[in-house]
Design brief:
The protein has about 80 residues and is mainly α. It has one domain: Arc Repressor Mutant, subunit A. Helices cover about 75% and strands about 0% of the residues. It starts with 5 loop residues before the first helix and ends with a helix.
């Protein structure tokens, strides 16, 4: 298997992290990340950001805030 290079690794990084690339591309990107500190750092950052956003999306807004937002939305005229 050959190294895919920085351009391809960075272009396909999001799909790679979500396991949405074909097996061959996945292996090539994994090999590249194993040998390229810059791309490996970028992948680590992207993975960490995705995890933080996912955790934040699981949290609920306080009930008072939700009620206020819903009330204001309902008060808006329908266009």
């Amino acid at each position: 298997m050959s190294d895919c290079g920085c351009d391809q690794a960075r272009r396909d990084l999001e799909e790679y992290l979500r396991n949405e690339v074909c097996k061959t591309s996945h292996e090539e990107i994994a090999e590249h990340l194993a040998h390229c500190p810059g791309c490996r750092d970028e992948a680590h950052f992207a993975r960490t950001l995705t995890e933080v956003v996912a955790r934040a999306c699981k949290e609920s807004a306080p009930e008072e805030l939700r009620d206020l937002v819903i009330a204001r939305l309902r008060a808006q005229p329908v266009v």
